[in-house]
Amino acid sequence: MERRRRVFVRQNQRTKSRCALAVRRSLSIVSKAITGGPSSRFSGDGLPGELIDGKKIADEVRADLKPRLATLAERGIVPGLAAIIVGDDPGSKLYVKMKGKASEEMGLAHWTVELPEDVSERRLLDEIARLNADSQVHGILVQQPLPPKIRVEAAVSAVDPRKDVDCFHPTNVGLVLIGRPRFAPATPAGVLELLLRSGNDPGGKDVVIVGRSNIVGKPLAALLMQKANGANATVTVAHSGTRDLPSHTRRADILIAAMGSPRFVRADMVRNGVVVIDVGINRIPDATAKGGYRTVGDVDFEAVRLKAKAISPVPGGVGPMTIAMLLTNTVRAAELSAES
Ligand code: GUN
Questions:
Q1: Superfamily assignment of 185-318 in CATH?
Q2: How many Å lie between the centroid of ligand 1 and the Cα of residue 143?
Q3: Strands (E), the chain
Q4: pLDDT tens profile 233-274
Q5: What is the largest CA-CA distance in the chain?
Q6: Residues noted as catalytic
Q7: Domain boundaries defined on the chain
Q8: Ligand 1 atom closest to 322 (CA)
Q9: Looking at the domain 72-160, which fold is it?
Q10: pTM of the full predicted structure?
Q11: 144 CA distance to ligand 1 centroid (A)?
């Protein structure tokens, strides 16, 4: 099994090679092949492909944070994460609760600010300003989606970029694009960690991302195309306007499904030996399930797995990674604030 060096970013890198270091550090690249590395069997032989276990890999990412937390603790610093949630969307509430629980388990401080559905944009921005000014708060996230009358861009731009652990602020998005990330956006960074730590380095591969959201598709494309170890892929971003989508998905060495349509990617849309990362989290009605629904991804998991070399499940794939990367960014924010 290959083990790749961890590389630490310094701010203010000036040279091209230092840009590459920044990307690697931000992504916490360690390609320990938790799932056993590349499969030796013939893919497409009708046997299920390897499972890329997000829970296990997220545990590894969290374990890597422990020494960093200990170093901060020696200086009396406890990283703190504040989450703002507007309204009562059950999915969003669950995610915010999980983020709080994960912070607690890691020994991070955390706060949840709950605002009503009809809150004004002004009031939300005031709340963000209050958290920006609080030195105990190192990371701030505003859970999306927001109610229609609140402008997402106003909310994300109001967060101090140094506390923007979602990496949604325009300045941080720009830094990712030019290969000098301050933070790596959590879900895209989680996808990269899943690939690397399962022994599926995207370097030189044809990667097809389906979905062009600001949260996943666009920043993931930016990360994957960087000239850096652990990235360096040839990236196609397909979306609802793409003509003949299967002709693109069938070309993919690595297929990333992030369009938010339950079980959209069928077996006839992928080629034998593909590596699949499923970012979708969709609730579908299921009378036999507790609560009357169950969670599925954007991929027809069972059928696609029979053609895949490796595939991430839903749940238990990207979801735990998003949270682990959010914690990583919060620790990073605390380290940066200690340096400044
Ligand atoms: N909604 C869906 N994913 C995310 C995320 O990663 N961060 C925030 N703030 N909201 C989301």
A1: NAD(P)-binding Rossmann-like Domain (3.40.50.720)
A2: 5
A3: 50-51, 80-86, 109-115, 139-142, 206-210, 234-238, 254-257, 274-278, 282-285, 293-296, 308-311
A4: 999 999 999 999 999 999 999 999 999 999 999 999 999 999
A5: 58
A6: 99, 143, 166
A7: 72-160, 185-318
A8: 6
A9: Rossmann fold (3.40.50)
A10: 0.88
A11: 5
